[in-house]
Amino acid sequence: MRYCQYKAYFLDFLPENPTAPDTAAKLLSGQSVKGVARCRQLPGRGPSATRLPLGSEAKLVGELSRCDAIAVATAFTEEWAAKDSELSLGWRNCRHHTEELVAALLAAEQAAAAEQAAQAGRDAP
User: Fold this and answer.
1) 26-73 pLDDT, tens per residue?
2) Residue 37's domain spans which residues?
3) pLDDT tens digits, one per residue of 8-30
4) Out of 19, 49, 69, 101, which could bridge 8 as a Cys pair, Cβ 3.0 to 4.6 Å?
5) What is the predicted pLDDT for the residue at 44?
6) Residue 72 near residue 104 (C-beta atoms within 8 A)
């Protein structure tokens, strides 16, 4: 496997002011707060790019090679924020964001694979 084009990104959805005491108070009392979606490239390339920050509970969930994952993630994030930028512990949190983002990325990868297979079929003699 060639790693020259390999990049790893850290995508998450968190409160706009995650360390503010009033953020914790609102979330613990069942209220929502303004949330922000982030996309950061992890340092390094190749297998070293998958090393996550110390203490992180994140994990590598897959590798996409057929679709433009960053474009898909950016579009997803814009749609997510346009729908509702509020974060709540019970119904709209980082876990929900991640589950929906992974589903969008996998759907894009499957669509790209199907398109490549169809193109290969059209190009076959």
Assistant:
1) 999 999 999 888 877 777 655 555 555 555 666 666 677 777 888 888
2) 9-123
3) 777 778 899 999 999 999 999 99
4) 49
5) 66
6) yes
Question: 94-123 and 69-83 helices cross at what angle (nearest 10)?
Answer: 140
The domain tally of the chain equals: 1
Q: By the 8 A CB rule, do 98 and 12 touch?
A: yes
Residue listed under structure tokens 């950061």:
40
Q: Whole-angstrom Cα distance, residue 46 to residue 2?
A: 8
pTM of the model: 0.70
Asked whether residue 73 is domain-assigned, the answer is yes
Task: List Cα–Cα distances, 37 to 16, 119, 121, 124, in angstroms.
Answer: 9, 35, 39, 43
Reported as type and span, the H/E element at residue 7 is none
Residue 2 is assigned to a structural domain of this protein: no
